[in-house]
Amino acid sequence: MLTVWGRKTSSNVQSLMWGIGELQLPFERYDVGGKYGGNDTPDFLAMNPNGLVPVLKDDNGPALFETNAILRYLGQRYGSEIFWPRDLTARTEVDIWAEWAKINVSLNFTAPIFWQLVRVAEKDRHPEAIHAAIVRLTGFLNIAEQRLSQHDFLVGNQLTLADIPFGSLLYRYFDLDMERADLPALYAYYQRLTQRPAYREHVMLSYEELRVV
């Protein structure tokens, strides 16, 4: 049994939970972080000294943190040859795009765009900075657009671990009231993700509790 600590409105928790859902693994999850707190207690800090979610334990194993690292662990232990290949070259290609999504897409969307549009009052926003962030993000999404015009998922025609850190951002990207480039292959990819039960259950969730009042 997997145990996860982390609130379901955390984008990193959503990424992990979607991966768990795709692997059809049993789990229990505890709301930690954000309005729930609990991530600054001695017990939690003993599991993750950064005080961040998610944290995962697999049965009585050690506490694991850093979302992509946890996903790799789950892929190695429970994943199929397609989800997390055993062949080193094929696995490295999946890993490249998982890291690309985390470093380039997530970091250029979550804080400079999502947080600004959701967690900052409109009067305190900086439209020029938000626009510049969208331009930067669109540059990376154009890379995804090129790949997704050639096959159904980031790496080939079936879902792999690489799609988890990338696709988990797209619900909020397409749901937000924001300017977006015309990226038909990316949108078609997103529509394919919305047909996956685990994606709907763990990613397509309201983020209203995060909005500034």
Automatic annotation (TrEMBL):
CDD domains: GST_N_2. The keyword Nucleotide-binding does not apply. Belongs to the GST superfamily. One of its GO terms (molecular function) is transferase activity. Residues 1-82 form the GST N-terminal domain. Keywords: Transferase. InterPro entries: Glutathione-S-Trfase_C-like, Glutathione-S-Trfase_C_sf, Glutathione_S-Trfase, Glutathione_S-Trfase_N, GST_C, Thioredoxin-like_sf. Residues 87-213 form the GST C-terminal domain. This is Glutathione S-transferase family protein. Gene3D superfamilies: 1.20.1050.10, Glutaredoxin.
